[in-house]
Design goal:
By secondary structure, the chain is mainly α. It has 13 helices and no strands. It starts with 11 loop residues before the first helix and ends in an 8-residue tail after the last helix.
Length: 261
């Protein structure tokens, strides 16, 4: 079945979005075009992430197949197709890497345990420092309400006395502060801009990952991401971080500073 010939919008991302809709309607030739448009970027990521270069073609094929299955099921991306497929490619490469390690014949338990402990300590240090830096970047009132409610465990009435608002004001302020902290935390993971035009877009990546960018910002980002592998990959990394932020409990994931009780 051939897709309709109706012209889509001019921008590359608008074309991708149009093709996504066609795939969901059953036009598989539209997915062929998506594959041609983004295969090279996926191969680049697979070559960088795969431990064994002989796995690259399989990783790319599995990634695109997974995206196709998701789209046919009514899931998957509605926009930012390149970032989505790069995230999937990275995940497939990591799964293959992990499987190959499990099949290794020789005994590395002691070395792996030591490496794992050192890596975990490094990651914990980075994440705690990153979270603290994100917290300190917030407006003072946001820091205060997060500290009172999510660290000290105060009720809204009590916290309101410190922040200077009523309980309803605390609730509203807390929502904005938690969202601000999540965005600041994600933004702290963004690498340095790679080229001309990347600086402005790199500042939007956390908001894009949280689906809170303005319409104008989203349009600028879509145009840039269509031609910039560096920024598209950076967004895919933030989407992966966002995906792994404790999906089982939204309330808990919104409170990264909360004390254990």
């Amino acid at each position: 079945m051939e897709p309709p010939t109706t012209a889509a919008a001019d921008s590359p991302n608008a074309r991708d979005n149009h093709l996504i809709e066609l795939v969901r309607q059953g036009h598989l030739s539209a997915f062929d075009e998506l594959y041609r448009r983004h295969k090279n970027a996926a191969v680049y990521v697979a070559r960088r992430e795969a431990d064994n270069l002989s796995d690259v073609d399989d990783v790319v094929a599995e990634a695109f197949l997974a995206v196709l299955v998701a789209l046919e099921a009514g899931k998957g991306p509605n926009a930012y197709f390149r970032s989505y497929v790069l995230t999937t490619t990275r995940r497939m490469a990591h799964q293959r890497n992990a499987g190959a390690r499990r099949r290794a014949a020789f005994d590395r338990d002691r070395a792996l345990a030591q490496t794992s402990q050192e890596a975990d300590a490094f990651v914990a240090l980075f994440e705690s420092a990153t979270l603290l830096r994100a917290f300190r970047s917030l407006p003072t009132r946001w820091q205060r309400v997060l500290w009172c409610v999510d660290i000290e465990g105060m009720r809204h009435t009590e916290a309101g006395e410190y922040v200077g608002v009523n309980p309803n004001g605390v609730a509203s302020l807390l929502i904005r502060a938690r969202e601000g902290l999540r965005q600041a935390y994600l933004q702290a993971h963004v690498r340095q801009p790679a080229g001309k035009g990347c600086s402005e877009i790199s500042q939007l990546l956390a908001r894009l990952a949280r689906d809170s960018a303005t319409a104008a910002g989203r349009r600028r980002a879509e145009s840039h991401l269509a031609g910039c592998l560096h920024c598209a990959e950076a967004l895919s990394e933030l989407l992966e971080i966002e995906r792994t932020l404790r999906p089982s409990s939204h309330e808990h994931s919104a409170r990264p500073f909360q004390k254990s009780r």
